[in-house]
Write a structure and sequence with these properties.
The chain has eight helices and eight strands. By secondary structure, it is an alpha+beta fold. It has a single domain (about 1-225), classed as Ribosomal Protein S5, domain 2 (2-Layer Sandwich), CATH 3.30.230. The strands form two sheets. Strands 1-2-7-8 form a four-stranded antiparallel beta sheet. The protein has a four-stranded mixed beta sheet with strand order 3-6-4-5, with helices on one face. Helix 3 packs across helix 5.
Length: about 230
């Protein structure tokens, strides 16, 4: 959940002006269970989410959030994957990127027997899968926050490298912030990729410059909380 800086994390903007985002994650999750598929008489792969896909080829998987990570890691085994999410799809809070990060982490553990990827490596891989391999429109923040968690600021440099810094605020301040934030599900999904494509152009640059400035002011406001004890 970005408080400030949203949409300035698109390559068309940060590659020229850099980006700064301030926000946090919430305690709602995507759960991924991955194991070798032992069903030798059925299709090679079994993917269960809101639908069930039974396919013999990774390329035939319809869900891009599953297909992309399996292709990236070149998974050769037949696998059974079960996905459960606390929130519905197209809720506008980065659930697709959370799935991508979670599945990348699960595959890493499956292939190596332990976690070998850092938070930054996970985020970079998820960004590459969604933005380059799948060519889905959008920014970088969802993958980064899904990998790191917590209340953070994210600084994106012009070359796409990013730095994640925890917001050094008191627990009392965070409690006050939580008490003043309300999430409401309006019952409809939002087509995030088409919305992203709609403003990923030069005509929105001046507005995004204002958004970046507001993000800088927001970060200053958070940092000043440290000195108000």
């Amino acid at each position: 959940m970005s408080l400030a800086g949203g949409s300035s994390d698109y390559k068309s903007f940060y590659s020229r002006h850099g980006s700064l985002l301030v926000g946090f994650t919430i305690n709602r999750y995507v759960y991924v269970a991955l194991k070798k598929n032992e069903d030798i008489f059925g299709p090679k792969h079994r993917i269960a989410y809101s639908n069930i896909e039974l396919v013999d080829s990774i390329d035939a998987i319809q869900n891009p959030g599953v297909r992309g990570p399996l292709q990236y890691f070149n998974v050769q085994d037949g696998v059974s994957i079960h996905i459960v999410s606390d929130l519905p799809k197209q809720a506008g809070i980065g659930s697709s990127s959370a799935l991508c990060v979670a599945l990348c982490k699960a595959i890493d553990i499956y292939q190596n027997g332990r976690e070998t990827l850092s938070k930054k490596e996970l985020a970079k891989i998820a960004i590459h899968i969604e933005r380059d391999m799948l060519e889905e429109k959008g920014g970088l923040q969802d993958q980064i926050w899904s990998s790191y968690g917590g209340p953070n600021s994210i600084e994106i440099e012009k070359d796409g490298n990013f730095k994640v810094r925890p917001l050094h605020v008191s627990e009392e301040f965070l409690e006050q912030l939580r008490d003043r934030i309300i999430f409401a599900h309006i019952g409809n999904g939002r087509p995030s990729f088409s919305l992203a494509a709609a403003h990923d152009n030069d005509s929105s640059i001046s507005i995004k410059q204002q958004i970046k400035r507001l993000s800088e002011l927001t970060l200053q406001a958070f940092e000043s909380e440290i000195y108000q004890k």
